[in-house]
Amino acid sequence: MSEQISYASALGSEAEKMARAGAASLRGGKRLRARFLLTGRRAVDEVAAGAPTAPDTAAVGVAAALEVFQAAALVHDDLIDNSDTRRGQPAAHRALQAAHVDAHWAGDPEAFGRSAAILLGDLLVAWSDDLLEESLADLATAPATRRQYADMRRDVTIGQFLDVAEESAYAVHDDDDHADRALRVASYKSARYSIQKPLQIGAALAGADDAQLDALGRFGHDIGMAFQLRDDVLGVFGDSAVTGKPSGDDLREGKRTVLVAYARQALSVERRAELDALLGDRTLDAGRISDLQQTIVDTGALERTEQLIVEYERQAEGALDGAHLGREAVAELRELARAATRRTS
Predict the structure, then answer these.
(1) Residue 226, Cβ neighbours under 10 Å: how many?
(2) CB 198 within 8 A of CB 40
(3) Nearest to 203 by CA among 41, 332, 27
(4) Apex CA 20: angle with CA 133 and CA 246, to 5°?
(5) pLDDT tens digits along 139-185
(6) What is the pTM of this model?
(7) DSSP secondary-structure letter at 170?
(8) Number of domains the chain is built from
(9) Which terminal residue of the chain has fewer beta carbons within 10 Å of its beta carbon, N or C?
(10) Cα angle at 157 between 42 and 222, to 5 degrees?
């Protein structure tokens, strides 16, 4: 990162400001994707080596590239959602807006922050690509790893669009279809990107065969679905002091999650219209948020979502049974899965 900042600083103080904003966006987080990637690699390599192995330089580099890509996704995600905070700190577009004010520049600070954040996200994607290619240089497994990485980037980009589109498209689809549509968003925006593909990228790096990729893929997708459903619960009921985002923020953003779909199914036509009118209202105060939370509980939507999380966890467990994967790595995968689906932030 110091090399990137040094390069940018030679182009002037404004370029250095952007590079430092990129470095700041990489701070914090659980490094969940990197951990699944490294464990997926070890699950395959442990079988080939006959014993647990430590990650090599290439694996660490690819894992780091994935985390840089994640930073890019969060910069754009916060911009799309108009979120003010990330991990308890100002979101990138807000930090860049503040930098405009502090520098006493002319023009609209908010517009600058939004434009700069788009470019910052693109810069982070470029850094991610550079790091990936440096890490894969001359490796025999580089083509297979690149294919998995490319699939990950494609799916999450489509998933992000599906998420944005659903906030409007829900109105022209049958109410009974909303839960399945929400699960489609969860699959492409999060499950594949957060866990399934990191596992398969790591496995491909280690030279996995089709059966190993399949077992890790099925496990990763189901745990990824449970992970996203837990995220949906936290987006409505999470403690802001723990999550770093205001409680009920998904309701203010109008997210059409499975929680919302299940709640709508249990409401009368009139109450469903009332719920739709409130979702996406940025001015919702704590009292209104509390009322919506209670509605979700009273309709049984929260309980149904918790049950679905448990079902995805159960399915994931079965995917690893009998798989030709390292025993210690599989045990670690199960620990990571529990941490991903039973978290509070």
Answers:
(1) 26
(2) yes
(3) 41
(4) 100
(5) 999 999 999 999 999 999 999 999 999 989 999 999 999 999 999 99
(6) 0.92
(7) G
(8) 1
(9) N
(10) 45
Instruction: Give the span between the Cα atoms of 101 and 107, in whole angstroms.
Output: 10
**Dihedrals phi, psi of 126, to nearest 5 degrees:** -65, -45
Q: Is the pLDDT of residue 72 over 90?
A: yes
Q: Which of 133, 123, 126 is nearest to 20 (CA)?
A: 123
**How far is residue 9 CA from its own chain's centroid?**
31
Is 90 exceeded by the pLDDT of residue 292? yes
Return the number of other C-beta atoms located less than 10 Å from residue 318's C-beta. 11
pLDDT at 251: 94
**pLDDT tens per residue, range 227-266:** 999 999 999 998 877 777 778 989 998 999 999 999 999 9
DSSP state of 247: T
> How large is the average pLDDT for residues 306-329?
95
Please give the Cα distance from 317 to 326 (Å, whole number): 15
Higher per-residue confidence, 71 vs 241: 71
**CATH number of the domain where residue 255 is located:** 1.10.600.10
Domain of residue 240: give its range. 2-341
